[in-house]
Amino acid sequence: MSYRVFLPQSVADGHNAEPLPVVYLLHGNGGGFRDWSNESDVARYAALGAILVMPEGGASYFLNAVGRPKDRYEDYLTKDLVKDVAERFPARRDRAGRAVIGVSMGGYAALKVGLSHPEEYGFVGAMSPPVDAPERGFSWRRFWQWWNFREILGPMGSEQRRERDVFALVDSVRPEATGFVYLGAGEREPLLDPVRRFAGRLRRRGFAFVFQVKPGGHDWGEWNRQIPDCFERWKTIAVPGGIAASGH
Protein backbone atom coordinates (compact mmCIF):
# COMPACT_ATOMS: atom_id res chain seq x y z
CA MET A 1 0.00 0.00 0.00
CA SER A 2 1.44 3.37 -1.00
CA TYR A 3 2.06 6.16 1.48
CA ARG A 4 4.04 9.39 1.48
CA VAL A 5 6.17 10.67 4.35
CA PHE A 6 7.50 14.14 5.18
CA LEU A 7 10.41 14.27 7.62
CA PRO A 8 12.28 17.06 9.42
CA GLN A 9 15.47 17.89 7.54
CA SER A 10 17.62 16.53 10.37
CA VAL A 11 15.99 13.11 10.06
CA ALA A 12 16.18 13.15 6.26
CA ASP A 13 19.90 13.91 6.58
CA GLY A 14 20.38 11.07 9.05
CA HIS A 15 21.41 13.33 11.94
CA ASN A 16 18.47 12.89 14.32
CA ALA A 17 17.63 9.63 16.06
CA GLU A 18 15.45 11.24 18.74
CA PRO A 19 11.91 9.77 18.61
CA LEU A 20 9.49 12.24 17.03
CA PRO A 21 5.68 12.55 17.11
CA VAL A 22 3.82 11.10 14.13
CA VAL A 23 0.81 12.66 12.43
CA TYR A 24 -1.24 10.44 10.10
CA LEU A 25 -2.98 12.55 7.42
CA LEU A 26 -6.00 10.99 5.73
CA HIS A 27 -7.37 12.12 2.36
CA GLY A 28 -10.97 12.47 1.20
CA ASN A 29 -13.10 10.30 -1.06
CA GLY A 30 -12.03 10.60 -4.69
CA GLY A 31 -8.53 11.62 -3.63
CA GLY A 32 -5.33 9.80 -2.82
CA PHE A 33 -2.20 9.78 -0.70
CA ARG A 34 -0.70 12.70 -2.64
CA ASP A 35 -3.55 15.10 -1.80
CA TRP A 36 -2.15 16.56 1.40
CA SER A 37 1.21 17.32 -0.20
CA ASN A 38 -0.29 18.61 -3.48
CA GLU A 39 -3.18 20.66 -2.10
CA SER A 40 -1.75 22.11 1.12
CA ASP A 41 1.50 23.42 2.56
CA VAL A 42 1.41 20.85 5.35
CA ALA A 43 5.07 19.99 4.67
CA ARG A 44 6.11 22.99 6.75
CA TYR A 45 4.82 21.27 9.87
CA ALA A 46 7.46 18.59 9.54
CA ALA A 47 9.90 21.37 10.41
CA LEU A 48 8.23 21.57 13.83
CA GLY A 49 9.77 18.19 14.52
CA ALA A 50 7.11 15.79 13.33
CA ILE A 51 6.85 12.84 10.97
CA LEU A 52 3.90 13.30 8.61
CA VAL A 53 2.47 10.10 7.11
CA MET A 54 -0.04 10.21 4.24
CA PRO A 55 -1.50 6.76 3.42
CA GLU A 56 -3.62 5.68 0.47
CA GLY A 57 -7.22 4.83 1.34
CA GLY A 58 -9.10 4.75 -1.96
CA ALA A 59 -12.83 5.16 -1.26
CA SER A 60 -12.67 2.92 1.81
CA TYR A 61 -13.28 5.43 4.60
CA PHE A 62 -10.17 3.74 6.03
CA LEU A 63 -12.48 1.17 7.65
CA ASN A 64 -12.76 -2.60 7.68
CA ALA A 65 -15.56 -3.07 5.13
CA VAL A 66 -18.48 -5.25 6.21
CA GLY A 67 -19.28 -6.40 2.67
CA ARG A 68 -15.69 -6.70 1.46
CA PRO A 69 -13.86 -9.02 3.86
CA LYS A 70 -10.50 -8.41 2.20
CA ASP A 71 -10.76 -4.62 2.60
CA ARG A 72 -9.40 -4.14 6.09
CA TYR A 73 -8.18 -0.56 5.89
CA GLU A 74 -8.65 0.18 9.58
CA ASP A 75 -6.39 -2.73 10.49
CA TYR A 76 -3.88 -1.49 7.95
CA LEU A 77 -4.00 2.06 9.31
CA THR A 78 -3.87 1.24 13.01
CA LYS A 79 -1.62 -1.83 12.96
CA ASP A 80 0.39 -2.50 9.79
CA LEU A 81 1.16 1.12 8.92
CA VAL A 82 2.02 2.11 12.49
CA LYS A 83 4.39 -0.85 12.72
CA ASP A 84 6.02 -0.08 9.37
CA VAL A 85 6.52 3.60 10.25
CA ALA A 86 8.04 2.66 13.61
CA GLU A 87 10.51 0.30 11.91
CA ARG A 88 11.56 2.78 9.23
CA PHE A 89 11.63 6.10 11.11
CA PRO A 90 12.41 7.45 14.60
CA ALA A 91 8.75 7.50 15.62
CA ARG A 92 7.43 8.02 19.12
CA ARG A 93 5.28 5.14 20.30
CA ASP A 94 3.41 6.81 23.13
CA ARG A 95 -0.20 7.98 22.84
CA ALA A 96 0.64 11.69 22.99
CA GLY A 97 3.13 11.18 20.19
CA ARG A 98 0.56 9.83 17.73
CA ALA A 99 -2.16 11.89 15.99
CA VAL A 100 -4.64 11.23 13.18
CA ILE A 101 -6.07 14.08 11.09
CA GLY A 102 -8.32 13.85 8.04
CA VAL A 103 -10.44 15.83 5.60
CA SER A 104 -13.92 14.80 4.44
CA MET A 105 -13.89 10.97 4.24
CA GLY A 106 -10.55 11.03 6.04
CA GLY A 107 -12.06 13.21 8.75
CA TYR A 108 -14.74 10.61 9.37
CA ALA A 109 -12.04 7.94 9.49
CA ALA A 110 -9.98 9.99 11.96
CA LEU A 111 -12.97 10.22 14.30
CA LYS A 112 -13.76 6.52 13.95
CA VAL A 113 -10.16 5.47 14.54
CA GLY A 114 -9.59 7.92 17.40
CA LEU A 115 -12.78 6.90 19.20
CA SER A 116 -12.29 3.17 18.60
CA HIS A 117 -8.62 3.22 19.65
CA PRO A 118 -8.44 5.96 22.30
CA GLU A 119 -5.37 4.40 23.88
CA GLU A 120 -3.42 4.89 20.64
CA TYR A 121 -4.11 8.51 19.60
CA GLY A 122 -3.64 11.60 21.73
CA PHE A 123 -5.08 13.92 19.09
CA VAL A 124 -7.84 13.59 16.49
CA GLY A 125 -8.47 16.16 13.77
CA ALA A 126 -11.56 16.03 11.53
CA MET A 127 -12.29 18.68 8.91
CA SER A 128 -15.63 18.47 7.08
CA PRO A 129 -16.30 14.88 8.21
CA PRO A 130 -19.51 13.33 6.79
CA VAL A 131 -20.65 12.31 10.27
CA ASP A 132 -24.17 11.68 8.97
CA ALA A 133 -23.02 8.92 6.57
CA PRO A 134 -24.49 6.02 8.61
CA GLU A 135 -27.88 7.80 8.63
CA ARG A 136 -28.14 8.18 4.86
CA GLY A 137 -30.80 5.91 3.45
CA PHE A 138 -31.45 4.62 -0.05
CA SER A 139 -31.55 7.13 -2.90
CA TRP A 140 -31.64 6.45 -6.64
CA ARG A 141 -29.91 9.77 -7.22
CA ARG A 142 -27.01 8.69 -5.02
CA PHE A 143 -27.27 4.96 -5.61
CA TRP A 144 -23.53 4.32 -5.79
CA GLN A 145 -22.89 6.27 -2.59
CA TRP A 146 -25.64 4.28 -0.86
CA TRP A 147 -24.18 1.02 -2.13
CA ASN A 148 -20.65 1.98 -1.03
CA PHE A 149 -21.89 2.89 2.44
CA ARG A 150 -23.76 -0.42 2.66
CA GLU A 151 -20.64 -2.36 1.65
CA ILE A 152 -18.42 -0.48 4.12
CA LEU A 153 -20.75 0.25 7.05
CA GLY A 154 -23.20 -2.62 6.77
CA PRO A 155 -26.98 -2.62 6.26
CA MET A 156 -29.12 0.09 7.83
CA GLY A 157 -29.99 -0.80 11.41
CA SER A 158 -27.30 -3.48 11.69
CA GLU A 159 -24.87 -3.84 14.57
CA GLN A 160 -22.00 -3.50 12.09
CA ARG A 161 -23.24 -0.06 11.04
CA ARG A 162 -23.68 1.00 14.65
CA GLU A 163 -20.09 -0.04 15.40
CA ARG A 164 -18.92 2.28 12.61
CA ASP A 165 -21.22 5.20 13.53
CA VAL A 166 -19.22 8.00 15.18
CA PHE A 167 -22.32 9.32 16.99
CA ALA A 168 -22.79 5.91 18.60
CA LEU A 169 -19.09 5.76 19.46
CA VAL A 170 -19.24 9.14 21.20
CA ASP A 171 -21.97 7.73 23.43
CA SER A 172 -20.09 4.51 24.20
CA VAL A 173 -16.54 5.66 25.05
CA ARG A 174 -15.24 7.46 28.13
CA PRO A 175 -14.49 11.10 27.23
CA GLU A 176 -11.65 11.35 29.73
CA ALA A 177 -9.90 8.38 28.09
CA THR A 178 -10.09 9.83 24.56
CA GLY A 179 -7.66 12.16 22.81
CA PHE A 180 -8.35 15.83 22.16
CA VAL A 181 -10.66 16.37 19.16
CA TYR A 182 -10.30 19.21 16.66
CA LEU A 183 -13.51 19.50 14.63
CA GLY A 184 -13.87 21.91 11.70
CA ALA A 185 -16.32 22.74 8.92
CA GLY A 186 -16.88 25.40 6.26
CA GLU A 187 -19.64 27.94 6.75
CA ARG A 188 -21.01 27.27 3.24
CA GLU A 189 -20.78 23.50 3.07
CA PRO A 190 -23.72 21.04 3.17
CA LEU A 191 -22.19 19.10 6.07
CA LEU A 192 -22.20 22.04 8.47
CA ASP A 193 -25.46 21.12 10.23
CA PRO A 194 -24.55 17.48 10.97
CA VAL A 195 -21.06 18.54 12.06
CA ARG A 196 -22.63 21.11 14.42
CA ARG A 197 -24.84 18.35 15.76
CA PHE A 198 -21.79 16.17 16.33
CA ALA A 199 -20.03 19.02 18.15
CA GLY A 200 -23.09 19.31 20.39
CA ARG A 201 -22.85 15.61 21.21
CA LEU A 202 -19.16 15.98 22.11
CA ARG A 203 -20.02 18.94 24.35
CA ARG A 204 -22.82 17.14 26.17
CA ARG A 205 -20.62 14.10 26.76
CA GLY A 206 -17.77 16.22 28.16
CA PHE A 207 -15.06 15.59 25.55
CA ALA A 208 -11.98 17.78 25.32
CA PHE A 209 -12.49 19.39 21.91
CA VAL A 210 -12.72 22.54 19.85
CA PHE A 211 -15.12 23.24 16.98
CA GLN A 212 -14.10 25.79 14.34
CA VAL A 213 -16.23 27.13 11.49
CA LYS A 214 -14.16 28.84 8.78
CA PRO A 215 -15.11 30.65 5.56
CA GLY A 216 -15.49 28.37 2.56
CA GLY A 217 -17.11 25.18 1.41
CA HIS A 218 -16.22 21.52 1.22
CA ASP A 219 -12.80 21.95 -0.40
CA TRP A 220 -9.11 22.51 0.17
CA GLY A 221 -9.64 26.26 0.33
CA GLU A 222 -11.56 25.81 3.58
CA TRP A 223 -9.36 23.00 4.87
CA ASN A 224 -6.24 25.10 4.38
CA ARG A 225 -7.85 27.70 6.63
CA GLN A 226 -8.38 25.03 9.28
CA ILE A 227 -4.94 23.40 9.16
CA PRO A 228 -2.95 26.08 11.06
CA ASP A 229 -5.37 26.08 14.02
CA CYS A 230 -5.51 22.30 13.97
CA PHE A 231 -1.73 21.97 14.19
CA GLU A 232 -1.52 24.63 16.90
CA ARG A 233 -3.85 22.50 19.00
CA TRP A 234 -1.87 19.40 18.10
CA LYS A 235 1.36 20.97 19.40
CA THR A 236 -0.11 21.28 22.91
CA ILE A 237 -0.58 17.50 22.91
CA ALA A 238 2.61 16.41 21.18
CA VAL A 239 5.01 18.63 23.13
CA PRO A 240 5.91 16.92 26.42
CA GLY A 241 3.98 18.55 29.23
CA GLY A 242 1.53 20.20 26.85
CA ILE A 243 -2.01 20.55 28.16
CA ALA A 244 -5.14 20.88 26.02
CA ALA A 245 -8.20 22.57 27.47
CA SER A 246 -11.79 21.71 26.65
CA GLY A 247 -13.17 23.61 23.70
CA HIS A 248 -16.52 24.98 22.69
UniProtKB/TrEMBL annotation:
A GO MF term: hydrolase activity
InterPro entries hit by this protein: AB_hydrolase_fold, Esterase-like, Mycobacterial_A85_antigen
Presence of the UniProt keyword Zinc-finger in the record: no
Keywords: Hydrolase
PANTHER family, A to Z: DIACYLGLYCEROL ACYLTRANSFERASE_MYCOLYLTRANSFERASE AG85A (PTHR48098:SF1), ENTEROCHELIN ESTERASE-RELATED (PTHR48098)
Name by which UniProt lists this protein: Alpha/beta hydrolase
Organism for this UniProt entry: Acidicapsa dinghuensis
Origin organism lineage: Bacteria, Pseudomonadati, Acidobacteriota, Terriglobia, Terriglobales
